[in-house]
């Protein structure tokens, strides 16, 4: 405090006089000035570097909650307020997912539909093992593509998907077969979808029955009954499909990269306690 006073008043009084009155040494005062002018070490330098690295790996999608979890996984002792401050200072922002928008499903058909056996039991620790499936559109400058996915309710992994220029019955069949090939399961697992004609087709119902699955369908016009699949599509369109792709080939490559290169192996999922779907599935396997 005394040296700071000398520094403030030295324009009006001699330094030696000020030091003598305050009983401090002149050499000590000049040491103080050198310390003040020396560049200060940023105690957050390593934290800032990791913050930027994690944000980049997340495709610049992570906000504060996921960044906090990821930094703690790297042994940083941080809280939400500190990370929020550093994000402001480093001009980092995450992408905020809006609520998914209900879409119209072609349920105006005479095909057989199943009861809603899943009944919104969406928790990852639900005693009801289940897969869920749905279809969405992907815009490109060469026309639309249609994406069918199959997700595990217990791990939130995208187990399989299929992209097509049209939306025929075999679009969902191929997605399901891709999932089954990658992750075969025992009998009795629910397969839940909306009431779309593709899922109600006789070929699809026969296929999943032959593999031991039990069909479950949302109630008519109730998109919330398939909220896990709808939420995945909302995430996909917030983080990857943010506009029309230049070509259909580019869309195919981008979707594959997002699912296999980021969503399944890396992206921290809030429903899984902020671990990735692949890591969560590995934990379940080792705990079994």
From TrEMBL:
Gene Ontology biological-process annotations: DNA integration
Spans traversing the lipid bilayer: none
InterPro entries per record: HTH-like_dom, Integrase_cat-core, RNaseH-like_sf, RNaseH_sf, Transpos_IS3, Transposase_IS3/IS150/IS904
GO terms for MF: nucleic acid binding
Span of domain Integrase catalytic: 123-285
UniProt cross-references to SUPFAM superfamilies, sorted A to Z: Ribonuclease H-like (SSF53098)
Xref: NCBIfam families: transpos_IS3
UniProt name for this protein: Isxal7 transposase orfb protein
Organism in which the protein naturally occurs: Isoalcanivorax pacificus W11-5
